Amino acid sequence: MACAAAASGVAASSVVIPRAPSAACSSSASGTSTSLAVPKSFCGLGKSFGARVATANVAVAKAGAVAGAKAASQKRGVARASAEDDYAPLVGNVAPDFEAEAVFDQEFIKIKLSEYIGKKYVVLFFYPLDFTFVCPTEITAFSDRYSEFEKLDTEVIGVSIDSVFSHLAWVQTDRKSGGLGELSYPIVSDITKKISKSFGVLIPDQGIALRGLFIIDKQGVIQHATINNLGIGRSVDETLRTLQAVQYVQDNPDEVCPAGWKPGEKTMKPDSKLSKEYFEAI
């Protein structure tokens, strides 16, 4: 697997837990008690940090025996729902909402996706695991160009199935050692894997997410989705280009953007006659 967890990388990191004077978790070893200051919501580690995900209704399986079917098949009683009845594409629909813990500016925070509705576009991207190989190249690339997303009124959010403690350790690891260093945007902990599952990027038998990326508009609707396999990194340039195309089409609903379109280039009218102006010009 292209992205395998490097557990030794976590153990070797020096982690500074964000201070939270209002709460402390106590631990004892060999009769000696110590106090570790951590955010109140994390005391005990017994709490689930999972996101609340809006789950889709499952279509009722079609029942009844088919005329002429073998008795053995009827006895098994296998109820199969039509793929057409169950399938609903994410693009063009409201993004599944979630609320989850995240790490930003070396602090533990809460992220609720629906809170961005009416305020910002969102680039939401999933990656397999912390302390891996392709992942830090993508995460730091998005961070280094965060100001370009800011100018487009867009928030960037990263997500993986790791805990916030793993995220924090990775942020506190120097980039030259495979870490992230300071990031300009939050990374979410999907420790229950519910967010990854709701966005259709979870690999069930591995328990990690594919490299999914979603552009969500200010109405909370997914306008773009791309999913790469584990060994293939994503392009910040292409993400920005697609985001600009999404925004242009929304601002100019009577126009569409052709292949490879960039701001300032010619668009076309979605009309059999008017589109000829574009084709005649190329």
Automatic annotation (TrEMBL):
EC code(s) of this entry: 1.11.1.24
Enzyme category, top tier: oxidoreductase
Keyword terms of this UniProt record: Antioxidant, Disulfide bond, Oxidoreductase
CDD domains in the cross-refs: PRX_Typ2cys
All copies of domain Thioredoxin, residue ranges: 89-248
An example molecular function term from Gene Ontology annotations: thioredoxin peroxidase activity
GO BP annotation list: cell redox homeostasis; hydrogen peroxide catabolic process; response to oxidative stress
SUPFAM superfamilies: Thioredoxin-like
Reaction(s) catalysed (UniProt annotation): a hydroperoxide + [thioredoxin]-dithiol = an alcohol + [thioredoxin]-disulfide + H2O
Domain of life: Eukaryota
Classification via InterPro entries: AhpC/TSA, Peroxiredoxin, Peroxiredoxin_C, Thioredoxin-like_sf, Thioredoxin_domain
Family named by the database record: Belongs to the peroxiredoxin family. AhpC/Prx1 subfamily.
PANTHER family membership: THIOREDOXIN PEROXIDASE, THIOREDOXIN-DEPENDENT PEROXIDE REDUCTASE, MITOCHONDRIAL
Function recorded in the entry: Thiol-specific peroxidase that catalyzes the reduction of hydrogen peroxide and organic hydroperoxides to water and alcohols, respectively. Plays a role in cell protection against oxidative stress by detoxifying peroxides. May be an antioxidant enzyme particularly in the developing shoot and photosynthesizing leaf.
Protein name in the entry: thioredoxin-dependent peroxiredoxin
